[in-house]
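ok trying this again, last paste got cut off
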Amino acid sequence: MTDTKKPRETVKKVVLAYSGGLDTSVILRWLQETYGCEVVTFTADIGQGEELAPARKKAELMGVKQIFVEDLREEFVRDFVFPMFRANALYEGQYLLGTSIARPLIAKRQIEIAEATGADAVAHGATGKGNDQVRFELTYYALKPDIKVIAPWREWTLNSRTKLIEYAERHQIPIAKDKRGEAPFSTDANLLHISAEGKALEDPWHEPEEFVYSRTVAPEKAPDKPEYVEIEFANGDAIAIDGKLLSPAALLTRLNELGGKHGIGRLDLVENRFVGMKSRGVYETPGGTILHAAHRGIESITLDRGAAHLKDELMPRYAELIYNGFWYSPERLMLQALIDKSQENVAGAVRLKLYKGAARVVGRKSPNSLYSLAHVTFEADQVYDQRDAEGFVKLNALRLRLGARPRPKK
């Protein structure tokens, strides 16, 4: 019985993005059996909240000689999440791109490991229906154009959980007991968010059951007393919470704790996948939701109107590039340079009120503030001549007045 659909290329060594779960464990054995090649495993800790030692042990049991297990949490937040949040990126106006932004980091590290170990191929466990295959592979090719890419889900005939389990049993691959039944939904997690999709969530009419959520309490069950938090920024990045300087990963971890406690950051979304279909995802991004609100709060008093509006015009394009996997594209890098330039004076502090699923900005201050009380006060002032507004209004109304004149009938 063959588990492949087409003839294989010759591969000597492949670096596999490996979680130690059912899918990637089957992929590991399948690569060894189908390609007859050496497999190097790479397991990244990006804050998914799972113990990684079992993945190493399982890889050892399956004969892997080169095993990489790495803590990438600080790099993930510092070099990927924070640059994205400088842009206030939201895909389709709502999604904070928690899964999307993790893929280029994992793929980048795979390429680095491939070069260090002399591997001529990389492999991932993304399916042929989703966005992740694109995100992984666009990064691979951007960083190493001649790399061979193996995507088992596009090659093999193991197209169901039942077949995966049968393959695992046939090849004596250990399976967690909870994997033998049909999972109610699929999840993906990192320090920024956790997502759930598929199976029990496929009908977009049905409200997700409470057991779907793991990082946030239900807003109606959150504390009845609001909590205030102060976030300090420098050059557009959050650097401290309530006066305490924190590393990027530690800061996001703390915001996750606060957001989860108050039921903040839940999203039930039907989105447009890059491959063309619509999918329903349930996301929890507690810390990111707070950070997004805070960043917009500090920008509101430090960014010039023209700069702020230009950023808002560019943001959907920037977010779409990340969603579609173009993190290393020239256009994303160009936009990032513009965004980073805009953040030079984005510094100060924002105070937020956390309560029953909401994070509301209730205060903001900055040494670089463009807010002028002298100009906006409703009291008497010495800096603004209200008579100047008459000409401003009339000039802006000129085209409207001309357009409203009676025209000859045809």
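PB: full thing came through this time. The longest strand covers residues 38-45.
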